[in-house]
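hey so i finaly got around to running the thing on Adenosylmethionine-8-amino-7-oxononanoate aminotransferase from Adhaeribacter pallidiroseus. pasting the sequence first so u can double check i didnt mess up the copy paste, my clipboard has been acting weird all day
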Amino acid sequence: METFFTMSLASRDHEIIWHPYTQMQTAALPIGIVRGEGSLLYAEDGAVYLDAVSSWWVTIHGHSHPYIAEKVAQQIKELDHVLFAGFTHRPAVELAERLLSILPHNQKRIFYSDNGSTAVEVALKMAIQFWENRGTPKRRIIAFRDSYHGDTFGAMSVSSRSAFTQPFVQYLFEVEFLDVPVPGKEQLVLSQIQEILKKGDVAAFIFEPLLLGTAGMVMYEPAILDDLLEICQQSNIITIADEVMTGFGRTGKNFATEFLKNQPDILCLSKGLTGGVMALGVTSSTAAIYEAFLSDNPAKTFFHGHSFTANPIACATALASLDLFTDVICQENRLRISQQHAQFRSKLSNHPTIKECRQLGTVLAIEFNTGETSYFNNVRQKLYQFALDNNVILRPLGNIIYVMPPYCTTNEQLAQIYGVVTGMLTLIAEN
Ligand SMILES: *Cc1c(COP(=O)(O)O)cnc(C)c1O
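ok and heres what it spat out for the 3d tokens, dont ask me to read them lol
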């Protein structure tokens, strides 16, 4: 017993746990984290890490925020959970009210689930059944070729065909892929969508608005997305904005869709929704989508739900996070981080090892000139380790390094992150 408890978390973990996106045979021992505060994570061996990637893009107010902790504690004492079919509760109602007040104005209904992938599954099922319920079934879905919408089968189907999806490819439904309309490719993408429309039978278009995260923080302009949305609206195609990553201030606005003139029919949220504290997903819809499910015929019901749908603790967490998010301090912090990023970016321009430096709001991405852009690129492992050795968590996407910090990250901490990024440039130049 004694030896068991003196073993590190990392080695106990290594005996019995299977980690996500990890080749367990070659992976280094995981880093045991015992405490979090602000943008810092404290490891069991005494090391302190700066979380420059918001723990996979979720943490927005920093770790273990006392205000959120307090609200969670209150909620758990009041009501922990109740089934959500036939029952409701205050946190779910209040959260729906507050979300609808900040989401695009055409959004009228909130459907809860557990995470980003389920929010996407719900959106796809809503869109498909919408046409079914209307008596005009449509089959095709349009998505961006390099997109990422999650790891469940529906979400994988509308995501890029890559090394991640390769073993499952024969089980994924067919999707009509558009190139990502990065600057210079707009006309090509417009002609691609026209070709798809000629085939007819298109139910929905799902997209990551303005910023494709997993693709490598790839960015494109609002104008072309507005054009695509307009074409879809004219052709009776349901538009689905996957704001799982872009939501809650990442792009400089509350939601990326605020940069657009046209509003999507369905919107998916998760990640920052609870401040990155609890797992919760939201799929919002217009009144028109919702009304297609109202019927005397029970077969037109939306038959979807999860055990933990609208968990009260998760909803209370999201409410607490929204309190912080809508506060002027958080808005100032987002602006401050954007400005710091921009300053750092201007210092980097013309660096020989940089192919491109991109920024949207609080997200900064630097693409290195190392040729290959695969996730398995060995540069990736070197850069990741270099950052860790310097007490900063930065997880490169192939030869792209990005900074997406919690909004409470101070200027001194940002400087530390930028210092590590600069060190990476030297490292690559020497390779
Ligand atoms: C992370 C992500 C998802 C999946 O969310 P999970 O909670 O990890 O299932 C879906 N869409 C986008 C754009 C994401 O970044």
